Amino acid sequence: MTLWILIFVPARSLTYWQGWVFLGIFGICVVAISLYFLKHDPKLIERRLKAGPAAETQRSQKIIQTLSSACFIALILVPGIDHRHGWSAVPASIVVVGDVCVVAGLLMVFFVFKANSYTSGIIEVQKEQTVISTGPYAVVRHPMYAGAFIMLLGIPLALGSWWAFVPVFLLIAAIVWRLLEEETFLADNLPGYAGYQASVRHRLIPGVW
Q1: Which of 77, 161, 175, 200 is the most buried (most CB within 10 A)?
Q2: What's the CATH number where 108 sits?
Q3: How far apart, in whole angstroms, are the C-alpha atoms of residue 42 and residue 49?
Q4: How many CA atoms within 13 Å lie on the side-chain side of 194?
Q5: Is 0.90 surpassed by the pTM of this model?
Q6: Taking the alpha carbons of 2, 157, 9, 27 in that order, is the dihedral positive or negative?
């Protein structure tokens, strides 16, 4: 319901078809992923629900999470405002590309969750946690963030708004900040992570960074 409000209230129109398509695709993917792990790995769902600024223990992460939340809300709000005022003219074919990116990003996150049950919503290390270096983790060190970036970059296109890339880039910057602090934390607190960093050189993009 919250996502529906953020999309359609700023648009002031229920004929905003890009919003309906995105809402349907995003909702179906998120519900399907949630139902799968509620059945097969409920502990993962429990860890993912412990999220947000209040759940973080480090001050910097509280700031990052607050900024990230604000940027994500802006990312969903801006396209509706854009649609109402007609600022962007995104072709339908590009909208479809955006929806495909949303699905691809969420699918990548799904496979990350399957590979690593310890993907918590906050930066922490569980007592029994070990380094995961197989599956998507054999390619880059932060495949969940990589999948999230694919999804986030697809949302402005899916919602037909070039202006929505402004909050997307701010959100990506906040996540990169989080990622770098997370690496430092894991290297200090998760046995074997420093060795994993040495064997898997790239964080998000194979061969690049």
Answers
A1: 161
A2: 1.20.120.1630
A3: 11
A4: 6
A5: yes
A6: negative
